[in-house]
Amino acid sequence: MSLNPRTLDWTGRTAWLVGASSGIGRATASALHAAGARVVVSARSREALDAFVATHPGSLAIALDATDRDAMQAAAAQIVATQGGIDLAMYCAGTYAAMRATAFDLDVALRHMRVNYDGALFMLDAVLPTLLAQARSEGSGRSGHISLVSSVAGYRGLPQSLAYGPTKAALINLAETLYLDLAPLKIGVSVINPGFVETPLTAQNQFKMPALITPEQAAAHIMDGWRAGDFEIHFPKRFTRWLKALRHLPHSAYFAAVSRSTGL
Predict the structure, then answer these.
(1) 163-167: long-range contacts at Cβ-Cβ below 8 A with a sequence spacing of 24 or more?
(2) For the chain, what is the largest distance between any 2 Cα atoms, rounded to a whole number of angstroms?
(3) Phi and psi of 18, rounded to 5°?
(4) What is the pLDDT of residues 144-196, one digit of tens each?
(5) Is the pLDDT at 212 greater than 90, yes or no?
(6) Would the pLDDT of 20 be above 90?
(7) The pLDDT value given to residue 207
(8) Cα dist. 114→3, 35, 167 in Å?
(9) Nearest CA to 132 among 92, 186, 84, 81?
(10) What is the Cα–Cα distance from 249 to 258, expressed in whole angstroms?
């Protein structure tokens, strides 16, 4: 059952990706460009964005820090002014550092909240007025879609994820609440919950990552999810289905299973 309007044709649609300098964001921006979308990429690294534009003709780069509310507002205004609207706003900016309670670092934890969650709120604040206006405009032909990149780490608590996991859990809850409010207006909302993907963030992991996939494979899953009208897009399913099953265990069984499987 499709919970969102299916996006079967990206030709001429404007897609803005915040956090698109590398990893999942960059690969998805490239896939959207190949599908005919007018792609706008944002991140802090101007050099990385310019490199993307150089290899993806017609795309637009707007450098910004996702934690800068004013910069997010200015970028959204620029996109609407030049593109006439926004069809997809995807938040894929993120930070990750392993942390356990025995080495708690408040500054690191707050940095995770600022980048992983607050930045998503800043994007929403910047794009929701446009998406709502599009949805309410008769004959506009565009209502838009919001997509938030969370993680399977947001399903339940995991070792080493004291700073990261709670921010991803917040994004899942945020997406669910947005969906309840925006689905009646035909504005799509999706949450993306990847497993392990080869990115600069996961490169710091000191353990063998099960079911590891490339950013290009992740982008293909995401495009498939939008095409199908999915609300939750999770992958690779051979890994994520196992984690989803663990969500239903009582706490005693869950804690024991995670401790056994991780050795932590």
Answers:
(1) 163/96, 163/97, 163/99, 163/105, 163/108, 163/109, 163/111, 163/112, 164/96, 164/97, 164/98, 164/99, 164/112, 164/116, 166/112, 166/113, 167/112, 167/113, 167/116, 167/117
(2) 57
(3) -100, 115
(4) 999 999 999 999 999 999 999 999 999 999 999 999 999 999 999 999 999 87
(5) no
(6) yes
(7) 59
(8) 29, 32, 9
(9) 186
(10) 11
Which two structure tokens, joined as six digits, stand for 112?
């995770």
Which residue numbers are catalytic? 164
Cis omega (within 30 of 0) on the bond before 5? Answer: no
Rounded to whole angstroms, the Cα distance separating 109 from 119 reads: 15
Residue 198 gets which letter from DSSP?
-
Length of the chain, please? 264
% pLDDT > 70, the chain: 94
Task: Classify residue 118 by its DSSP letter.
Answer: I
pLDDT of residue 226: 98
Predicted local distance difference test score (pLDDT) of residue 1: 84
Digit-coded pLDDT (tens) for 193-209: 998 778 776 656 655 66
Q: Which two tokens stand for residue 8?
A: 């079967």
Dihedral pair phi/psi, residue 189, rounded to 5°: -140, 130
Domains (ranges, CATH) in the chain? 14-262 (3.40.50.720)
Write phi, then psi, for 213 (nearest 5 degrees). -125, 170
Query: Between vectors from CA 85 to CA 83 and to CA 87, what angle results, nearest 5°?
Result: 110
